[in-house]
UniProtKB/TrEMBL annotation:
Biased composition (Polar residues): 432-444
Name of the protein in question: Macrolide resistance MFS transporter Mrx(A)
Ranges annotated as spanning the membrane: 20-45, 98-124, 179-200, 237-264, 276-296, 303-322, 328-352, 373-404
Residue ranges constituting the Major facilitator superfamily (MFS) profile domain according to the UniProt record: 14-417
Annotated keywords: Cell membrane, Membrane, Transmembrane, Transmembrane helix, Transport
Localization: Cell membrane
Major subcellular site: membrane
Annotated segments matching region Disordered: 423-444
Species: Streptomyces olivaceiscleroticus
Xref: InterPro entries: MFS_dom, MFS_trans_sf, TM_effector
Amino acid sequence: MTADAAGAGGISGRRSLRPLGGVLAAMAVSLTGTRVSAVALPWFVLATTGSATQTGLVAFCEMAPYVLVKALTGPLVDRLGPRAVSWSTDLASATAAAAVPLLHALHLLSFPLLLALVALIGAARGPGDLAKEVMVPEAAERGRVPLERATGLTGVIERLAATIGPAAGGSLVALLGPLTGLAVNAGCFALGSTIIALALPRGMGHAAEVATPQTGTGPGYWRRFSEGFTFLRGEPLLLTVITMVGITNLLDAAFGAVLIPVWAKESGNGPTAIGLMGSVLGAAAVAGSLVAAAVAHRLPRRVVFFAGFLLAGAPRFLILAFDVPMAAVLAVFTVSGFGAGFINPLLGAVLFERIPRRMLGRVNALGDSLAWAGIPLGGLIAGAAVASVGLVPVLLAGGAAYFLTTNLTGLRGEWREMDRVRGRHDHERQPQQDTESSGANPAA
């Protein structure tokens, strides 16, 4: 967004931390609810069916609609504004999540109906998460907060949710059963919807695009979608990032949705161990994100980024493949979490610097969806693999794949742009935005 556009959008010259605080609070409650559900839902399926394959199928039915709908709603977020999309989709997620324990209590919840409700939750979560992400640069601008610090704080919120959510989920499942965790998830979505709808400043979160003088309307849906695709195609760094993160996301999905629950059940540690491991990982990641928020703008991005992946990836898989004390597992998860805390703040800053404000919705939607495309398959692949060859070989193969993916991809030359882009601002990209509006190749 240019300085003129900012003024037109009603952003005052006074600094206010209320917008950033509101967006972060909404992220915190919705992500915490999702993390609680990530423990409660797989355990509910395992407890009622005893099938790792069906557990993977439930994960697929949530994440496939998440990825698909998120990819297609980017132009709508740009057209309607992220605020309206965020509160309405969070409300839909809350309704679907609340229906699961309610229908189970009434003995009306069949497995196909559970899959349908989980799919609805995923379909609503996708655009809701996207809309909150899109509001971060505007909130940082209103608060006069450096972009890397704002994305660092976003990372802190994500990691706090990853800490509190699994601990709460594991405790709720152990004490009150998995359906209580799903009810808490519904309440968190409802609270997030309320924060976005009522707590943010009145002029925040509206559409970044303006109508054309000739028609009085903006470009159509498919024109917006095409502009986002064309822009992304002309950014080699973003495409390289998306490819690598897509593979690691698939492996992480397999790890979280199937491998950890199966390990907890086979080892006898139970759902409490899942919550403890997730909390340790999340707490360490909070520390990493706080360090990133404080000093990331002074550090070489490439070195920190790949060091974070080296710590965050393969060690988690490998430690579970061996019969070691729980203290050793928690130690490895602590180191992995600290490394993971640096990844998303750096990625977020690079993305927000390179993407024009008016296109954040559609480009982020496409990029996120491509990066998340493998997540629905992670649970399915892991469930089938564990059923075929057992848990330990799958853990070893997953750790090796994670290590090779992050290290081999890092040899590509596009990563030099990660440091070169530092300090680029939207007003410096205005000529490129004008070129995109005329339909030319943005890479030019």
